[in-house]
Amino acid sequence: MANEFNSISGSKRSLHVQVAREIARGILSGKLPQGSIIPGEMALCEQFGVSRTALREAVKLLTSKCLLESRPKIGTRVVARANWNFLDSQLIEWMDGIIDSEQFFHQFLGLRRAIEPEACALAAQHATVEQRIELSETFQKMCDVAAKAEEEFFDQAEWTAVDMKFHNLIFNSTGNDFYLPFGNILMTMYKNFIVHSSEKGGLCLQEHRDIYEAIMAGNADKARSCSANHLQESKHRLPALN
């Protein structure tokens, strides 16, 4: 584990966040195994080229994300995977490029299936007039982007932004405060997922239309079933799991 990390002293980012990112990626990739003791302060400060203050702030940040724990006379240990906060948006960003994308997308789709159909049903029942107007405007924007895509002017960044907004609005329209965090925290995962899903022009516009129309009609059962239909692997460039 010696000399595991490179110096980041020239980084323009906040030093402690950059240190935290590098240690986190070592944990997430398995280079720093669960239950292992990470190198001591002096060794890490030398490897990263940072002060003890920056290193301690990094360890504090990773402790708050349940990746590390410090114990007197033992050192700083990597926490078991079962305790990692996978819904932390920063942690999701740090995973980029070090985990299997297909596995990640399958797991995320499974999470969406568990919560999103019910969010759509609740939105159909509880969305305010203002929220319905905003959802209508957002869906019209989706139609505009899709129309340009048919003319071979597809702007994936534009589609990703409006698709994310569409789903975020649904969570925010449930009338249930416990759904609100999903509308914010999950956006980091949505971005990567939507980029993958729409890479070859698979916009699922009809599925979004079905969800939108059911919500606007106040039909909770239909909104739920339309959402479940949308969340099939085949509609997102993913092979079905056996």
The strand order across the widest sheet is: 1-2
Which ranges are low-confidence, i.e. pLDDT below 50, for 5 or more consecutive residues? none
What order do the helices and strands follow?
HHHEEHHHHHHHH
**Average pLDDT for all residues:** 88
Number of helices: 11
Instruction: Give the tally of β-strands.
Output: 2
Largest sheet, in brief, is: 2 strands, antiparallel
Domain HTH gntR-type: 13-81
GO molecular function: DNA binding; DNA-binding transcription factor activity
Keywords: DNA-binding, Transcription, Transcription regulation
InterPro entries: GntR_C, TF_FadR/GntR_C, Tscrpt_reg_HTH_GntR, WH-like_DNA-bd_sf, WH_DNA-bd_sf
Short description:
The chain is mainly alpha-helical and 242 residues long. 61% of the residues lie in helices and 3% in strands.
Structure description:
Strands 1-2 form a two-stranded antiparallel sheet. It has eleven helices and two strands. The protein has helices spanning 15-28, 41-48, 52-64, 89-95, 101-126, 129-150, 156-172, 180-185, 187-197, 205-216, 220-230; strands at residues 68-71, 75-78. Helix 6 runs antiparallel to helix 7, helix 6 (129-150) packs antiparallel against helix 10 (205-216) and helix 7 (156-172) packs across helix 9. With 242 residues, the chain is mainly alpha-helical. The chain has two domains: 15-89, Winged helix-like DNA-binding domain superfamily/Winged helix DNA-binding domain (Arc Repressor Mutant, subunit A, Orthogonal Bundle), CATH 1.10.10; 101-236, Four Helix Bundle (Hemerythrin (Met), subunit A), CATH 1.20.120. The model has no long low-confidence stretch (mean pLDDT 88). Helix content is 61%, strand content 3%. It comes from Vibrio casei. GO terms for molecular function: DNA binding; DNA-binding transcription factor activity. This is FadR family transcriptional regulator.
